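R.M. (postdoc): so does anyone remember the format we settled on? I'll just put the C-alpha cells first.
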C-alpha cells in the first residue's frame, strides 16, 4: 500500500535555471555511476 507523507517546503525562485538543470544532470550521472560500481562489486 502506498504511504502518503506530508512535509513543509519553502519554494524559492532559481536565479540561474540553466546552471540548476546542469547540476541535476551532473549529480544524477554521478549517482548512476556509483550505483553501477557498487552493483558490479
Amino acid at each position: 500500500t502506498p504511504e502518503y507523507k506530508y512535509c513543509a517546503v519553502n519554494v524559492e525562485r532559481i536565479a540561474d535555471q540553466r546552471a540548476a538543470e546542469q547540476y541535476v544532470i551532473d549529480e544524477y550521472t554521478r549517482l548512476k555511476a556509483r550505483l553501477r560500481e557498487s552493483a558490479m562489486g
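R.M.: ...and that's the designed sequence above, right after the C-alpha cells. Also worth knowing: The chain has a mean pLDDT of 91. Residues 16-41 form one domain.
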